[in-house]
Each structure stands twice: as C-alpha cells, then as structure tokens.
Amino acid sequence: MSALLGLTGIRKSFGDHEVLAGIDLELAAHEVVALVGASGSGKSTLLRCVNLLERIDDGRIVLAGEDISDPRVVADRVRARIGVVFQHYNLFPHLRVIDNVTLAARHVHGMSKADAVAKGLALLDRIGLGAKAGEYPDRLSGGQQQRVAIVRALVTDPALLLLDEITSALDPELVGEVLDLVRSLKEQGATILMATHEMAFARDVADRVVFLDAGAIVEQAAPEAFFDHPEQERTRAFLSRVR
Ligand code: ADP
Ligand code: MG
C-alpha cells in the first residue's frame, strides 16, 4: 500500500540557515506520528511545508498520490484536505464558535453554509461543546477553545491532520481534555502528524516517534523502542533533558 503522505528529500533554508536538511518521511493512512525534538529543530517548519505555508527549496511532498509540492498546485485546494491546528488556538474573538468553525470551510474551501454548519454542529456535539456553538470564544476555557480549533480543522473531512504543539499554550489542568480528543481522533482512524513536547502523550498515542535534530531525522521507532531503547547518543541526550 502506498503512503498517505510521502516526504522525500525536503530541504528548507531561511537565508543561509538550513532549517530542514533533507527529510524523508512516510505516513501510512491511519498512522499517528509524533515529531519530537528541541526547540528550533525544525518541527514547525516541516509542518508548515507540508501545508504549503512554506515553499520547500528541494524535495517532494506527495499526498494521497498527488505531488502537492508541484508549484502549479493550488495551495487552497490542498489545504482543504489537510487540517491544521497550531499552538495558539487563533479563534477569531469577534466570531461565535460556530462561525469560527465554519468560516474557512465556507469561504476558502467552498462548502455550502448549510453543510458547514451541520457538520460543525455535529462535531461540536460529539465533543460536548454543542451548547457553546453560539458563544464567543472568550466565554470558553483555553482547553475548550483549542478543541474548537480542532473541530474547525475537521469540518472539511481532511485526509491528514497536522498538530503543532497544540497543548503548549494551555494551563496544565486543561491539557488532558485536548489530548483525549486527539486520542479519540486516532481511534476513529485519523492520520496525524503532530509536533509535541508531551512525551507521555507521544508514547501513549503515537504509532511512531520521529526525533528531529538540526533539521534532520536522527532516529525513529515505535514508542516503546524509542523511549526505552534509543539507539543514538543524540536521542539519549534529548530524552534525558525532557524527562
Ligand atoms: P521547532 O518548531 O522545532 O521549534 P522551527 O521550525 O520553528 O523549530 O524553527 C527552526 C529554525 O528555523 C529556528 O532556528 C527558527 O528560528 C528558524 N525559522 C523558522 N521560521 C523562520 C522564518 N520564517 N524566518 C527565519 N527563520 C525561521
Ligand atoms: Mg515549533
């Protein structure tokens, strides 16, 4: 079976700083991959490249058989198939929850208002936030806001979810509900590439952990092997710092 996402030889520099130094990575459908690594190792840049927010300098990105790194590809069409959630929930404060959830689906990805609202309400209901659909974001806790941001990413039924440190701006007591939602998405068969500094969560949810250092993959393995028997000295040094 071919990979849902295939990255080959991804390179990206900012000026003369090479941030991604040739990344090869494949995700199978329904696979959850955790990207870990020190701050500045290139995790966010890699996710931004996959979502075409950054243009790669070299390499190829193939999503479900299509070369999306081809410059002729229309980025918005690709982004409709990739759900993205960032560290800061970035809900629009002047829009009600349901409008936050449906805005991009309607105006960027061309869903009808009726379809987007029906889908958005169903998803909010499923995570216990249906009653908040008409509220403004500042009436929600940080954890609820981040769950709304995840729902917003799911409205278009994306083939792939990219999650970038989605709990790092949350108070500790609000982290659990967001991680529970990610766990349930995995159980429902989502394909997820997530940068995370939550090692316990990576161990619990990821099928595979990929360690990035200075823009290169140093080691990758199933969580038990990665955390209990890291092979590379750089991996051991990283793990000893984060645990
Ligand atoms: P991580 O998410 O692993 O912390 P990032 O991908 O955010 O790492 O950053 C990797 C490196 O790329 C850092 O040194 C960062 O300063 C640099 N970088 C990221 N985005 C830009 C940009 N738009 N312009 C210049 N440098 C950038
Ligand atoms: Mg980052």
Topology, pairings included?
Blueprint: E1 5-14, E2 17-27, E3 32-36, H1 43-50, E4 58-63, E5 66-67, H2 75-79, E6 82-85, H3 97-107, H4 113-126, H5 142-154, E7 160-164, H6 172-187, E8 192-195, H7 199-205, E9 208-213, E10 216-221, H8 223-228, H9 233-242
Parallel strand pairs: 3-8, 3-9, 6-7, 7-8
Antiparallel strand pairs: 1-2, 1-4, 4-5, 9-10
Helix pairs in contact: 3-4, 3-5, 5-6
Bound molecules: adenosine-5'-diphosphate and magnesium ion.
The site of magnesium ion (MG) has 5 residues, from helix 1.
| Total number of beta strands | 10
| Quaternary organisation | single chain
Helix content: 25-40%
Specify Rg, calculated over alpha carbons.
18 Å
Largest sheet: 6 strands, mixed
Task: Order the strands across the largest sheet as they lie in space.
Answer: 6-7-8-3-9-10
Distance between the termini: 36 Å
Q: What does the overall shape look like?
A: globular
Low-pLDDT residue intervals, each spanning 5 or more residues: none
Number of helices: 9
From N to C, what is the helix and strand string? EEEHEEHEHHHEHEHEEHH
Q: What is the residue-mean pLDDT, rounded to a whole number?
A: 95
Strand content: 15-25%
Bound molecules: adenosine-5'-diphosphate, magnesium ion
Structural class: alpha/beta
Overview of the molecule:
The chain has 243 residues and is an alpha/beta fold. 37% of the residues lie in helices and 24% in strands. It is built from nine helices and ten strands. The chain has helices at residues 43-50, 75-79, 97-107, 113-126, 142-154, 172-187, 199-205, 223-228, 233-242; strands at residues 5-14, 17-27, 32-36, 58-63, 66-67, 82-85, 160-164, 192-195, 208-213, 216-221. The strands form two sheets. The chain has a six-stranded mixed beta sheet, with helices on both faces. A four-stranded antiparallel beta sheet has the order 2-1-4-5, with helices on one face. Strand 9 (208-213) and strand 10 (216-221) form a beta hairpin. Helix 3 packs across helix 4 (113-126), helix 3 runs parallel beside helix 5 (142-154) and helix 5 (142-154) runs parallel beside helix 6 (172-187). The longest helix has 16 residues, at 172-187. The protein is globular, with a radius of gyration of 18 Å. 40% of the residues are buried. The model has no long low-confidence stretch (mean pLDDT 95). The site of magnesium ion has 5 residues, from helix 1.
